[in-house]
Amino acid sequence: MRRYENNLKGYEEILKMKPCTIVLEPTGVYAIRSSQYFKEKGIKVLQVSPNMLSREKEFRGKKTDFYDAEKLENMVDKAKEYEYNPLRELVTLYLFLNDIEVNYRNRLKRHYS
């Protein structure tokens, strides 16, 4: 199995393989950029819910990147096509940034207490 960085360089490496479809697990803000990038390049982007992945019998107790990638390719029939939804993505980004803010506030409280 080959790993690709979740950045422009990694996306360009994937494009060199000339894929017609990309299947991925939408993991919050980490999936937004890649989904949008490939969609803009004319590649069909399918997403398999993390909940659906974890419900699969063979996944129980083995939820790792390697197993995720291995099983994603067999779950294309359960995937939904990515549709850009700016509001949903802004909410996802807001929640992500809010979590970061809370973490830092808690650190500061512990440090100065």
Automatic annotation (TrEMBL):
Species the sequence originates in: Saccharolobus solfataricus (strain ATCC 35092 / DSM 1617 / JCM 11322 / P2)
InterPro entries the UniProt entry points to: Transpos_IS110 (IPR047650)
Name recorded for this polypeptide: Second ORF in transposon ISC1229
Domain of life: Archaea
